[in-house]
Amino acid sequence: MSLSLTQQEADALLALDKHYHGSDRYSFPSLGGALRIPLHSEDNREEFSLDITRGRIELRKNTFQSRARKAVILARIDIGGPPHRNPDGEEIACPHLHLYREGWGDKWAMPLPDVFTNHADAWQTLEEFMAFCNVVTRPPILKELFT
User: Fold this and answer.
1) I want to staple 76 with a disulfide (CB 3.0 to 4.6 A). Which of 16, 65, 93, 118 is the partner?
2) Cα separation of 119 and 77, whole Å?
3) Which domain of life does this protein belong to (predicted)?
4) pTM listed for this prediction
């Protein structure tokens, strides 16, 4: 299976409704923790993953990403980390959003769009990220004290 997609394929996968079909309940990761949650298309023909990663030291550092076909990152938000340097040399401050770009994967970042209303609130940003990625049937994630 190829890890590269056409832009049309990537856009279609990002737009596809995603569903959590499992029965597991998850806790928002603590510092230094990570969570990988399997998602599927309505017809179960496509598999996705919602990944949540927390920084070890910096409370504000969070990464939320949506993957398709096991390894293709469709979208990723980085919060509380260093700036990102795009392939053209432009530096993008954190927080920022990475979207799949044909031929480049997730190498390009852009400032966080206005649909993300409060990046200081990790829980709210996760909820908005799931909406952005069309996670329709959401996994049960328990909010922890330092979420």
Assistant:
1) 65
2) 10
3) Bacteria
4) 0.93
